[in-house]
Amino acid sequence: MISKKTTVAFIVNPISGTHSKAALPEMIEQVLDGERFDYQIVKTEYAGHAAELAKALAADGTDIVAAVGGDGTVNEVARALVHSQTALAIVPCGSGNGLARHLCLPMDMKRSVAIINEAHIETFDYGIINDLPFFCTCGMGFDAFISLKFAEAGKRGPITYVENVLKEGLKYKPETYEVSDDTGTHHHKAFLIACANASQYGNNAYIAPGATMKDGQMDVIIMEPFDALEAPQIAADLFMKTLTNNSKIKTFRTNRLHIHRTAPGAIHYDGDPIMTGPDIDVSIEHLGLRIVTNPNATEDTAQPNPVLNAFSDLFNNINNVREDIGHGIEKRSRRIQAINKLMLRKLKG
Fold first, then answer.
1. In sequence order, which residues have a C-beta less than 8 Å from that of residue 100 and are 6 or more positions away?
2. Residue 231 near residue 221, CB atoms below 8 Å
3. Cα gap 56→54, rounded to integer Å
4. I want to staple 192 with a disulfide (CB 3.0 to 4.6 A). Which of 29, 142, 204, 243 is the partner?
5. Helix (H) or strand (E) holding 137
6. Would you say 307 and 202 are in contact if contact means Cβ atoms under 8 Å apart?
7. Is the distance from CB of 280 to CB of 192 less than 8 angstroms?
């Protein structure tokens, strides 16, 4: 009796991410075990097409659907597979790759295809913000504002992200939020509020270093207002997995949250920004998505992180900034601007 092969469909977004996908068909043919897997490759043609394709494939009983692209493509495919028997695989080709990094999947396309041969599948939580599924993070405030700027920038990658943070960060005005969970209602003036199912935004920027995708809860991160001299420390903590040690960060865990703000504004879900009204509901769906994971997962520390290197260099200058405080606001401002320029040179170099 011939055993049934596992069926795999690769959904490829030709224009997403930062990697060329021209060699993908040949790579899959070489790497995927043809004795155990039958596969097909389908390409998206318009926004939202990946979700449509994935939904149809799941309805047809496809065993694994692989998202080949960036975080937006992964979100589209994943949201079509929730509460189904079809598992998500990820071939990360984006600028952030937040979910793939949290799961310690290879960033190399060939190695990520090879992971599918293991067929090691686990079930994970996912989140919903105002009826929009997310799998890594969602939020409002500065990170949603930056997501809008990032989307408008016309180019991707960590350098673009940090450039936007440096240019816009000191101009952004914190808002006051009314936050309600099962402990009651609390008011917070915040730079941002993030709700994390996974640990990071992407690019190894850890907004919730202790987050797990199997506990039925989200990590809620409230970043309180801070001044220009405190900003570099917060930014460095983000990349060093030490953000929760910062005095400007308040965190708690819950499975459901309601947030009210004074006016409509932006929110983001897995980095995709959208404008919404003043009321925001966030919840966690426990163990609702099956994902192909790396059974030998280890964090890839071999590749240099240009953002972390830039922040390390930046911190060599922070004490000098603090010494300038007593010499007047104008001189301090010039010093901060000079350090921001230094960081950008390091990132581009």
1. 74, 90, 92, 107, 112
2. no
3. 5
4. 142
5. strand 137-141
6. no
7. no
The residue with greater pLDDT, 41 or 344, is: 41
CB distance 66 to 55 below 8 Å: no
188 vs 174: CA distance, rounded Å: 10
- C-alpha 277/C-alpha 148 separation (Å) is 16
Residue 221 CB partners (closer than 8 Å, separation 6+): 192, 193, 194, 195, 196, 207, 208, 243, 249, 250, 251
In terms of C-beta density within 10 A (0-12 exposed, 13-18 middle, 19 or more buried), how is residue 308 classed? middle
Residue 141 identity: G
The whole-angstrom separation of Cα 90 and Cα 112 is: 7
**Cβ-proximal residues to 95 (8 Å cutoff; 6+ apart), any chain:** 17, 18, 70, 156, 157, 158, 160, 161, 202, 203
Q: Is the pLDDT of residue 306 over 60?
A: no
- Cα separations in angstroms, 138 against 120, 149, 167, 207, 304: 27, 16, 22, 11, 27
The alpha-carbon radius of gyration of the chain (Å, integer) is 21
pLDDT tens profile 286-295: 999 999 999 9
Cβ-contact 342, 320 below 8 angstroms: no
Give the C-alpha separation, 164 to 162, whole Å. 5
Model pTM above 0.85: no
